[in-house]
Design a protein that fits this description.
Elements lengths: L5 E6 L14 E2 L2 E2 H10 L6 E5 L3 H9 L19 H16 L5 E4 L9 H12 L6 E6 L5 H4 L1 E4 L2 E4 L18 E10 H6 L10 E5 L11 H12 L17
Parallel strand pairs: 1-4, 1-5, 6-10
Antiparallel strand pairs: 2-3, 5-9, 6-9, 7-8
């Protein structure tokens, strides 16, 4: 089952409550959304990459960094409560209508997860291509702590394990690994995406792409942003479109 043509979508709405203006905020010398565009340019499997935004200011900035903004997103799809799924469905339908051709897969590139690498997409596409029954691939990483072992809650005024009733682990090393969706990469087959009412991770239709947690930035507030900036400055995380010291463009 083919995975091409592939449409990549960079969503960047104007409103942001956790960190105002985060999609255009410079990280290591580039606006966040520009990192997604630089990534896409280094992925030959991406047949077209567009920016979906409701903001003329963001659209202008995206074009300054050679981003493709074929339309402005409708206001009803740019609210604080708007889920990502209808935004992607709208983008896919609009691009297919404008081009008069069908895309087989869609790649979501959130600006707030800038440390993805081209080889990550290559692995995701391989997973999808080898499994015709798979509807998509979602990037995950191991968290810094295992919630099966250390997470607790309060019940009737007393501390209790969050995951009770199962095996009682006495050593961290014995606890089965868990993963968190890190937001770095979402890859979906077209028909699944257009027919979905929600992305159901319990439906056994999706596969995991495990990526290192050191690169799994998920920038939602100023602290997240500063931690990502420090990691890049220290050389702990490297992206091929940045200079060796982590500042500016090549």
């Amino acid at each position: 089952m083919s995975v091409r043509p592939l449409l990549a979508v960079v969503p960047a709405r104007g409103g942001s409550k956790g960190l105002p203006g985060k999609n255009v905020r410079p990280l290591a010398g580039l606006p966040l959304l520009a990192h997604a565009l630089e990534f896409a340019r280094r992925c030959p499997a991406i047949d077209r990459c567009i920016v979906s935004t409701d903001s003329k200011k963001i659209a202008a900035l995206a074009r300054r960094y050679r981003g493709d903004v074929p339309f402005l997103r409708p206001a009803e799809l740019a609210q604080d409560q708007t889920p990502m799924l209808p935004v992607l469905q709208h983008a896919l339908r609009e691009v297919e209508r404008m081009e008069g051709r069908r895309y087989e897969t869609l790649l979501l590139l959130q600006p707030t997860n800038p440390a993805r690498l081209p080889q990550d997409l290559a692995r995701a596409l391989a997973l999808l291509a080898e499994d015709p029954g798979c509807a998509g691939v979602i990037a995950v990483s191991e968290p810094a702590f295992n919630p099966r072992y250390v997470c607790v809650e309060e019940r009737a005024g007393r501390l209790r394990r969050l995951f009770s009733g199962g095996p009682a682990y006495t050593r961290r090393q014995d606890v089965p690994p868990v993963f968190r969706i890190n937001g770095m990469l979402y890859l979906f087959r077209r028909d699944y995406l257009l027919g979905a009412k929600e992305i159901d991770v319990d439906a056994a239709l999706l596969r995991m792409l495990v990526l290192p947690r050191e690169r799994a930035f998920d920038i939602d507030d100023l602290h997240d942003f500063q931690m990502a900036e420090l990691a890049i400055e220290a050389g702990l995380v490297k992206m091929p479109w940045l200079k060796k010291k982590g500042r500016g463009r090549k």
